[in-house]
Specification:
The complex is a heterodimer of chains A (about 1450) and B (about 140).
Chain A (H helix, E strand, L loop, with lengths): L7 H8 L3 E6 L1 H8 L5 H5 L9 E4 L5 E4 L5 E4 L7 H14 L8 E6 L2 E6 L3 H12 L12 E9 L5 H17 L14 E9 L5 H15 L4 E6 L17 H16 L6 H12 L1 H9 L9 H6 L10 H15 L12 H36 L5 H12 L24 H14 L3 H18 L2 H17 L9 H14 L3 H17 L3 H11 L5 H16 L6 H17 L3 H15 L5 H17 L3 H13 L6 H21 L12 E2 L5 E4 L11 E2 L11 H18 L14 E2 L10 E3 L4 E8 L6 E15 L9 E6 L1 H4 L11 E3 L2 E6 L4 E10 L3 E14 L16 E7 L11 H5 L12 E3 L5 E6 L4 E3 L2 E11 L5 E8 L5 E2 L23 E3 L7 E5 L11 E3 L6 E2 L4 E9 L5 E13 L8 E13 L2 E9 L21 E10 L7 E13 L2 E6 L8 E3 L4 E10 L10 E7 L3 E3 L4 H8 L5 H14 L5 H12 E16 L2 E15 L4 E2 L28 H4 L3 E6 ...
Parallel strand pairs in A: 1-4, 1-7, 7-8, 8-9, 14-23, 25-35, 48-57
Antiparallel strand pairs in A: 2-3, 5-6, 10-15, 11-13, 11-15, 12-24, 15-20, 16-17, 16-19, 16-21, 18-20, 21-22, 21-23, 24-26, 26-33, 26-45, 27-31, 27-32, 27-34, 28-33, 29-43, 30-42, 34-35, 36-37, 36-46, 37-41, 38-40, 38-42, 38-44, 39-41, 44-45, 47-49, 49-53, 50-52, 50-55, 51-53, 54-57, 55-56
Helix pairs in contact in A: 4-5, 5-9, 8-9, 13-15, 14-16, 15-16, 16-17, 17-18, 18-19, 19-20, 20-21, 21-22, 22-23, 23-24, 24-25, 25-26
Chain B lengths: L1 E7 L5 E6 L5 H25 L7 E7 L3 E7 L5 E7 L7 H20 L12 H12 L3
Antiparallel strand pairs in B: 1-2, 1-5, 3-4, 4-5
The chains are: A alpha+beta (about 1450), B alpha+beta (about 140).
Pfam families (chain B): Sedlin_N
Organism (chain B): Denticeps clupeoides (denticle herring)
InterPro entries (chain B): Longin-like_dom_sf (IPR011012), Sedlin (IPR006722), TRAPPC2L (IPR044760)
């Protein structure tokens, strides 16, 4: 906002000053020329009066004239041509620029903080210039000449003659009518005779005498002897003389130069001088003589100024000040006033004062009186005068005439002596001598007269001045009549079509309104004044209006911004680029970041253009960058234009600027967080049947769960290698780093292995982009890690220099840098670019960023391939700044927002390491559940370093096997064994008796905790060597898609370096479809065919009973087309104690075939192979083949998978019970164990099957094996691991759980303690006719199943309480003892002889006796009824 | 009828702005943005007097050479601005008022959409059609 150094009053006062003309003789001109000044110029710095003047108004009241300024100009000055005036103003505005630093104040309006320059010096300069260059007009007298100085040099031969000549000339100018231009206020202009005496050469005596003559002739009031040039030669450089002219003439001289250059007519020169010298009259106040600003910061200087007569203080300080002033003006090329001393300055000052007080003011006073008298004499004639005088004395008000009554005529022209003009003249005179009250009433009167005459121009002038003088009145303040001004402006503009006057009016009025804080009105006024005819004026006024808006009580920020933009627009039209740029920049503060993107883009675009034309490519580029970076709403065409402009600006700025630094490009967006780094070679594509390990590629999505899984697998191996402990320095291998991985540590990369950086780039624009010659920027510090403990760091090398020019082929000796020649991005596309580095030395690498050529792509060419490198491109870079994850470990981290480092891009290049590649041959993708397949795996060491310690770990250890360690394989080539069975087979006829093998588990348990060691010949795989091994796979037991992860672990043959080991990952996807479901149940057979007498001699497998095993096989394969039928080829058992004995199937069905959805049942007898307490841990495998081949289940693939069948809960449980057995403890627990033991069996069944499958008209034979683990008698076991129920939500328990009740054997368990068996003849012949009672001997066999003593009670009393027993046809009775109490030792078999008595023939159920049993030592337990035997029927026939 | 319809969030960023396609869109953006000053002035003037029962309709904000700008403020300080052609003299205050009411209703519907995230630019088709209706209608 125009915060000014002047008050409004001063400003208005200075706008209208008394004009004095100067007429100089040639000699006088010469005298002043010595100082390179004309006479008016000589006086100019002293034209403001420091002392007060007085005069009396017509009513004889004293009027004080303060701080008066007069304007002295040459009489032959012509008003400037309008075009020249405009050029001058434009120049002035262009010259005045805002200070670069400071002085801007911050205005806070609502949510906006605006940085706005506090002052608008260009506007003030413009205004001063404008007001000074106002041409004198018909309708007002304010800038008409009041007086004329006639200057004659004393060196003239006859000075008095000269005076006469000049006087005549002046008369001619004024009255002859030849000269249109200088306008004169009053016919008899005051003539002031000045005798200029050059002290350096003239004779002073003569001058004095001439002066006396002058006084005689013209009166002492109108004469003056001015003595100057008291200094000799003017070359005394040692004397410090202030140069008050410099600030008046300095700029004017340069301006004149400009004007000449511009080819403007020569007479502009003087005009320019004049304008510019007057322009800074304001400033003169503080530098020279002003004392009106009592609190001015330069007050001290003024006090010390020697211009005040009688003030002799502080000469030293004075000199100081002068030097400062001199310093300020030292830029001058011409020195003014070289012949003048300070005394001369004083003399000039005194002269001006003398002239004003003795000559000018009395002259004005006289004229006012005269005019007043004239007017009073016409009192009777003029009605208006009546009211005027009435107004002077009575102060009554006269109703205004409204604007509407004004007619649209410019009005008539008055003759110079018209009474209306006399009033106006008087008013102007009063105004000039600061008698504003009188001036106001005169103006008011004149206004009414003019209005009634319809002299619109005159009326407007009077209105304007009336308003101004009303405002300036101090004695009786009256409200500022703003409407006067409005009317005046309107009249000037619309009626008179005089924009200059209208503008003056508006400038004055707005200033007054602003001073009264009526900003809104001021703004309206200013905005109204904008028009098409002058861009500069419109721009300035709009800017002022904008400042008004921001200065309102409720700042109107947006209006401010909008008008700033309008102003900027006009400035740019007016060619004021600097100002336009400033306006747009200020407006941008409001629009920035508020979502008004269209407007923001527009502003930024304009700023960019303006900055560019002003040769500020930096800020231009920044502005354009904004347009492109923000999510643009612009149309594609617009965006393309923006982009082209941006590239052009960048290009030209790059050409002009230094080449050493590449610009940072804003496009495309580089999402540095999404950046990924991959270490190692690209995955080799599958070659024929060979399928390479998937390992890790950049194409995979990062999965946190998966990576955790890999880390767990790796930990598993590492722990095993380090004897069960994971070393603290363990760092999981990460081949691919992304924002989700842990990047706190420097990653390790191996020399000669590529590092791939994947950049995620997004094109935000709707136009395509073409990036060319794209490569990575890096910095590398070479270090030799193998040499010493503390590696010596070498020099840092960077490729930044090389990257400057795309044509330079990068040197690849340290790190080979891949260059992508073309990278095309479609509109709004997100794309990844992969850039590779290949380090050739060890050390520390740091990826700095990416460098590329950004260019536009032409879509019209069609496909991306057809694109040629666009002609418009710039080379630039984008640096990568990575921010790590937020730290959340310590309390400090949690309370403050801290981010960890991210070392993704700072790999350490380590010495060479072995590199393994793994290939799979004939690796299936689909398997039936439990299907067995043989595949091959090939290990290749592709590095130059030997490899050792190869191990493999998997998430599914039961999926594959490499064969047991014991069986040394001669690896068959995969092709030769294509049609063989994967199993080891022996030709054998189908038998009913199983073949038995004993195998120790340890032979097959080569893997510990799922980690399998791969047997390498000699333990080392040399460089370039390959090893092929068979690998058996077994389809997972559950159907569906299974992801099976393999992790291959290997080490350097010699442990060294930073990298302890390396890993290779493979993920196999297996689709498993359903095959067979096997359910098996073991039943107790009740036959006890061992007599106690034969106990010692009996074979162990026949020793204590046998079981029946029912195997239910169901074909649940749903794939109708593929597999035709399944054949059960063999059933094997594996157990420590039990073995399959015989097949008790009907023999007809050899190969039990099962078509779709069929189900078959097999029945086997299982016998005990040894007693439970046998310490031999070897397992017994018994094979019962149903076909012609026996599969040796105890050999590699079969047994391997059997042992890998997964965690067997049974075994664990058995282990517990076994432990209890070893150290039996009294109490419920042991008894429980014993009781449980009776019903437990430990038997695993292996069902081997073959399936015939047609695929591509080829019959395939598939094989497979199923495992069923039997745990308990009578309980069905299934090959399916039942789908685990979804975990129920566990209720949170807040109370401690009550201790579990003492484990008690359940009734059911207890009922298995004793096995009973009745032996009797099935049919019995009896002659009832002979003997009515038939007695049959029955033997009850009691067999103790448990390992403890059991008390048994046999109750023979028949109880037919159960309803079904009623159906039994007859009743029989037990004879003899009906209740027995026995004690059976462990595993003892006891016979009890009973006799049953029948009375008639029939079928009887003997199994009605009840047996109760309890453990002998567990006294607390009551006897439990034992399992009821099957109905034992006896047929009694009557013979 | 209307040549530009704008919805401006409480924080004075545009939620929705649409103008007749034949005209310079940028000009309307500037016009609407500038009108916010007047809206604020009016709201602060009214707010003091009757805080709760104030009229949502603000009336004519200011006229420009070619257009008239009308304003409306919801209770949640969301501003609606409608710019109409000054040459269209048939438009009465009442009609403008009803346009605003319609706009407000439609805006409320948008806000009620559970998938609308308050503060996002409005992209509702229903709202669009209501606005189009205002722009085409009548003249």
């Amino acid at each position: 906002m125009a915060q000014r150094t002047q008050s409004v009053q001063e400003f208005i006062q200075d706008a209208f000053v008394p004009m004095v003309a100067v007429l100089c003789s040639d000699d006088a001109e010469k005298v002043t020329r010595k100082n390179s000044l004309s006479f008016p110029e000589l006086l100019r710095p002293f034209c403001r009066l420091t002392s007060e003047g007085h005069l009396r108004d017509p009513n004889n009241q004293l009027v004080l004239v303060k701080n008066l300024r007069i304007s002295v100009t040459g009489v032959n000055l012509r008003p400037p041509h309008p075009a020249a005036l405009r050029a001058n103003l434009a120049h002035v505005v262009a010259q005045s620029q805002p200070p670069d630093t400071g002085s801007a104040n911050v205005i806070t309006a609502g949510e906006y903080d605006l940085n706005i320059s506090a002052t608008t010096p260009w506007f003030e300069a413009y205004r001063e210039n404008f007001l000074q260059s106002m041409p004198a007009s018909e309708h007002e007298f304010l800038n008409h000449y009041l007086a004329c100085m006639l200057v004659v040099s004393s060196s003239e031969a006859v000075p008095m003659e000269e005076f006469l000549k000049l006087s005549q000339e002046q008369h001619k100018i004024q009255h002859s009518g030849e000269y249109a231009h200088p306008r004169w206020f009053i016919p008899n202009t005051l003539k002031y005779y000045v005798l200029l005496h050059d002290l350096s050469q003239g004779d002073q005596q003569r001058a004095e005498s001439v002066y006396e003559d002058m006084k005689q002739r013209y009166g002492s009031q109108a004469c003056y002897l001015l003595k100057i040039n008291s200094r000799q030669g003017g070359a005394a450089a040692d004397e410090q003389i202030p140069d008050p002219w410099s600030q008046y003439l300095n700029r004017s001289s340069t301006f004149t130069q400009d004007v000449y250059d511009g080819g403007v007519s020569a007479d502009l020169n003087s005009m320019g001088n004049d304008i510019n010298s007057d322009m800074d009259a304001t400033d003169s106040t503080k530098d020279t003589v002003s004392n009106n600003l009592a609190d001015h910061p330069l007050q001290l200087d003024q006090a010390a100024e020697p211009t005040f007569p009688g003030d002799a203080g502080e000469p030293a300080g004075n000199a100081e000040v002068e030097r400062l002033q001199k310093g300020g003006a030292s830029t001058l090329n011409t020195l003014h006033g070289a012949w003048l001393t300070l005394n001369d300055h004083d003399r000039i000052r005194q002269f001006v004062q003398e002239f004003t007080f003795r000559g000018l003011l009395p002259h004005i006073e006289k004229n006012i009186r005269q005019l007043n008298d004239q007017l009073l004499s016409r009192k009777g004639l003029s009605r208006s005068l009546f009211s005027a005088t009435k107004k002077w004395f009575g102060g009554g008000k006269v109703p205004e005439k409204s604007i509407n009554e004004l007619k649209n005529t410019a009005g008539l022209l008055y003759p110079p002596e018209a009474p209306e003009l006399q009033i106006r003249k008087m008013a102007d005179l009063c105004f000039l001598v600061q008698h504003y009250e009188l001036a106001y009433s005169c103006y008011h009167t004149a206004k009414k007269d003019f209005l009634s005459d319809q002299a619109m121009m005159y009326a407007a002038g009077s209105l304007e001045m009336a308003a101004v003088s009303a405002f300036l009145q101090t004695a009786a303040p009256r409200p500022y009549p703003a409407h006067y001004m409005d009317t005046a402006i309107q009249t000037y503009r619309d009626v008179c079509r005089n924009m200059l006057l209208a503008e003056r009016c508006a400038l004055l009025s707005s200033e007054v309104l602003k001073s009264q804080a009526k900003y809104s009105e001021a703004a309206t006024l200013l905005i109204k004044m904008t028009s098409e005819d002058s861009d500069l004026r419109s721009a300035l006024l709009l800017e002022q209006a904008a400042h008004c808006f921001i200065n309102m009580r409720n700042p109107m920020v947006r209006k401010f911004a909008f008008h700033m933009i309008l102003s900027g627009h006009r400035y740019s039209k007016a060619g004021q680029r600097q100002h336009a740029l400033r306006c747009y920049c200020q407006a941008l503060q409001v629009y920035r970041g508020k979502g008004w993107s269209l407007a923001e883009d527009h502003i930024n675009f304009t700023i960019g253009r303006q900055s560019f034309t002003l040769r500020q490519p930096g800020s231009a580029a920044a502005a354009f960058r904004h347009i492109l970076v923000n999510d643009s709403q612009q149309s594609p065409v617009q965006q393309a234009a923006f982009l082209r402009e941006y590239l052009y600006v960048y290009k030209s700025s790059g050409e002009s600027g230094s080449e050493s630094v590449l610009p940072q490009l804003p496009l495309p967006y580089l999402n540095s967080a999404r950046m990924r780094v991959f270490f190692g070679h690209e995955r080799r594509p599958a070659e024929g049947e060979k399928q390479a390990a998937t390992h890790v590629t950049l194409d995979q999505e990062c999965d946190a769960d998966l990576s955790r899984l890999w880390v767990r697998l790796e930990e598993q191996v590492v722990a095993l290698v380090n004897r069960g402990v994971v070393p603290t320095s363990f760092q999981p291998t990460q081949a691919c780093l992304s924002h989700t991985t842990d990047n706190l540590r420097f990653p390790l990369a191996v020399v000669e292995e590529p590092i791939t950086v994947e950049l995620s780039l997004r094109n935000p624009l709707k136009v395509p982009l073409l990036l060319t010659h794209m490569s990575l920027l890096w910095k590398f510090t070479a270090k030799d890690f193998s040499q010493s403990q503390s590696p010596v760091a070498g020099e840092s090398v960077s490729n930044e220099k090389e990257a400057l020019d795309p044509k330079v082929v990068p040197k690849n000796d340290i790190i080979a840098t891949e260059v992508i020649p073309q990278f095309f991005m479609s509109p709004e596309e997100t794309k990844v670019a992969r850039l590779k580095l290949l380090p050739h030395q060890t050390g520390e690498l740091r990826v700095l960023g990416v460098v590329y050529n950004l260019g536009t792509a032409d879509m019209t060419n069609g496909s991306a391939e057809g694109l040629q490198a666009a002609d418009l491109w710039v080379r630039g870079r984008q640096d990568v700044e990575l921010q790590g994850a937020r730290l959340n470990q310590t309390k400090e981290d949690k309370t403050s927002v801290k981010y960890g480092p991210d070392h993704r891009l700072d790999p350490i290049i380590t010495p060479p390491m072995p590199l393994l590649e793994v290939f799979f041959l004939r690796f299936p993708t689909a398997l039936l559940c439990s299907e067995l397949r043989k595949a091959w795996v090939e290990f290749v060491n592709v590095s130059a370093v030997p490899l050792s310690g190869l191990r493999v770990v998997s998430t599914h250890p039961n999926f594959f096997t490499l064969g047991g360690s014991g069986s040394a394989h001669t690896p068959l080539s995969p092709s030769s064994s294509e049609h063989c069975s994967a199993y080891k087979t022996v030709a054998a006829p189908p038998s009913t008796v199983a073949k038995v093998t004993r195998v120790s588990e340890a032979e097959f348990r080569a893997d510990v905790a799922g980690v399998m060691e791969v047997p390498l010949p000699g333990g080392v795989l040399g460089p370039g060597e390959a090893l092929q091994l068979p690998m058996w796979l077994r389809g997972p037991d559950s159907e569906g898609v299974h992801e099976i992860h393999f992790l291959f672990y290997y080490e350097h043959a010699q442990k060294n370096g930073k990298l302890s080991h390396r890993v290779l990952r493979h993920t196999a996807v297996i689709c498993a479809s359903r095959s067979l479901c096997v359910r098996a149940t073991a039943c107790c057979s009740n036959t006890v065919h061992v007599s106690p007498t034969r106990r010692q001699t009996s074979r162990p497998d026949e020793q204590s009973g046998s079981m029946l095993l029912f195997v239910d096989v169901e074909n649940i394969n749903t794939n109708e087309a593929g597999v035709r039928e399944f054949h059960i080829v063999q059933v094997s058992s594996s157990s420590r104690i039990w073995r399959l004995h015989t097949c008790i199937n009907p023999t007809g069905d050899k190969d039990s075939k099962l078509a779709n959805r069929e189900r078959g049942k097999l029945c086997f007898r299982v016998s005990r192979s040894r007693s439970q307490d046998d310490a031999d841990e070897k397992l017994v495998f018994a094979d019962l083949n149903l076909g012609n081949e026996q599969i040796v289940s105890s050999s590699t693939p079969c047994a391997d998978f059997f042992f890998r069948r997964g965690p067997a809960p049974v075994q664990a449980k058995l282990g517990v019970t076994l432990g209890q057995e070893v150290a039996p403890v009294g109490g419920a627990d042991s008894s429980l164990g014993i009781i449980r033991k009776c019903s437990e069996i430990e038997l695993d069944i292996i069902v081997l099957w073959k399936a015939y499958m047609v695929e591509d008209n080829k019959q395939l034979i598939l094989e497979g094996q199923l495992h069923v683990a039997l745990q308990r008698i009578g309980k069905e076991a299934c090959s399916f691991t039942q789908r685990e129920e979804n975990q129920e939500m566990v209720l949170l328990k807040f109370k401690p759980e009550p201790p579990p009740p003492l484990a008690r054997p359940s009734l059911e368990q207890l009922s298995h303690l004793i096995k009973t068996c009745l032996q009797y003849p099935e049919t019995y012949q009896h002659q009832f006719l002979q003997k009515s009672i038939c007695m049959v001997p029955v033997t009850l066999m009691l067999s103790n199943c448990s390992m403890a003593q059991v008390d048994v009670i046999i109750d023979l009393r028949h109880k037919s309480t159960s309803p079904d027993s009623l159906e039994v046809s007859g009743v029989f009775v037990w004879l003899g003892q009906t209740q027995y109490k026995l004690q059976l030792a462990a595993q003892e078999v006891r016979r009890v002889c009973l006799r049953a008595c029948f009375t008639r023939p029939g079928v009887y159920n003997l199994g009605v006796l009840r047996v109760f049993a309890k453990l002998a030592q567990a006294s607390s337990l009551c006897e439990t009824s034992q399992q009821n035997a099957l109905p034992s029927l006896i047929i009694i026939n009557s013979a | 009828m209307a040549v530009c319809v704008a919805v401006i969030a409480k924080e004075n960023y545009p939620l929705y702005i649409r103008s007749v396609p034949t005209q310079n869109e940028l000009k309307f953006h500037y016009t609407v943005h500038t009108s916010l000053d007047v809206v604020e002035e009016k709201v602060s003037a009214v707010g003091k007097a009757l805080a709760d029962q104030r009229e949502l309709y603000l009336g004519l904000l200011y006229p420009t050479e070619d257009y008239k700008v009308y304003g409306y403020v919801t209770n949640s300080k969301v501003k609606f601005v409608i710019v109409v052609d000054s040459s269209n003299t048939s438009l009465r205050d009442n009609e403008i008022r009803s346009m605003f009411r319609k706009l407000h209703n439609s805006f409320t519907d948008v806000m009620c959409n559970p998938f609308y995230n308050p503060g996002d630019a409005i992209q509702s088709r229903a709202f669009d059609s209501v606005v189009s209706g205002m722009m085409v209608q009548a003249c």
